[in-house]
Amino acid sequence: MNENYETQTSNSKKITAYQLCSVSLITAVLCVVGPIAIPIGDIPVSFTNLALLLAVYVLGAKLGTISCLLYLLLGIAGLPVFSGYAGGMAKLTGPTGGYLIGFIFLTYISGLFIQKSNCNLFWSMVGMLLGMAALHIFGTGYYMHLTGCTFWQAVIVCKEPVFIFVDFIKILFAAFTGREIRRRLGQAHLLLNE
Questions:
Q1: CB count, 10 Å around CB of 161?
Q2: pLDDT 10s digits, 160-190
Q3: Apex CA 145: angle with CA 140 and CA 147, to 5°?
Q4: What is the pLDDT of residues 13-54, one digit of tens each?
Q5: pTM, to two decimals
Q6: In angstroms, rounded to a whole number, what is the distance separating the alpha carbons of residues 3 and 6?
C-alpha cells in the first residue's frame, strides 16, 4: 500500500472534526447494516461483522473500535440497530449478547493487524481470522453460560460450522474490498490521521 499508517499518525491525541465526522458516518452505516440478518435459529447470520471489518480499513483500530462501541451503545439504548431490528438491554442479555460483545474484540484485533501490517493481505487476513475467533469464543461461551448447554450442544445450536464458512467468505470479501476502498480513499486524500 502507498499510504503508510505510520506516516499518518498525528502528534496530537485530540480527535479532529474530520475524524469525528468519519466515526459518526461509519457508526450510521453500522446502524443501517446491523439489523440485516438471515434468521437460521437462535443466532442469525448478521452482516454487522462484515461492516466492522470494512470499517477498520477506513478508520483504523482505535477509531473503528470507537465506532463499534457507539453502535453498541445506540442499540443498548433501545434503537433498533441489532439483528432483526431489535434493540435494548434484552438483546445484550439474550442468546446473541456474547456476539455483540465479541464485535469489540473483532474490530480491535482485526484493526491492529491491518494497521500494523500496512494492509498486507496475509497479515490482514490473519488478524481478521483471529478477530472472528474471538467473536465466536465470546458468542458461543456466553450462549453456553446462558443456556447451560455443553460446548458441542452450543456448536450445534449456534450452527458454528455455517457461521465459520460464511465468516470466511466475509473475510475474503473484506480483505480485497477493504484494500481497494483504502487505496481509493488515499488517492482522494481522504484517509484519516489516527
A1: 10
A2: 788 889 999 999 999 999 999 988 988 888 8
A3: 90
A4: 677 888 899 999 999 999 999 999 888 877 888 899 999 999
A5: 0.87
A6: 9
Please say whether the beta carbons of 110 and 135 come within 8 A.
Answer: no
Distance of CA 62 to the CA centre of its chain: 12
Residue type, 15: I
C-alpha atoms less than 13 angstroms from C-alpha of 1 in its C-beta half-sphere: 29
Contact 88, 82 (CB under 8 A): no
Report how far residue 139's alpha carbon sits from residue 126's, in angstroms, rounded to the nearest whole number. 20
Q: State how far the Cα of 79 lies from the Cα of 35, in Å rounded to an integer.
A: 10
| Integer Cα distance of 74 and 92 in angstroms | 12
Torsion over CA: 117, 25, 172, 69 (sign): positive
CB-side neighbour CA atoms (13 Å) of 82: 28
Residues 6+ apart with CB under 8 A from 39: 84
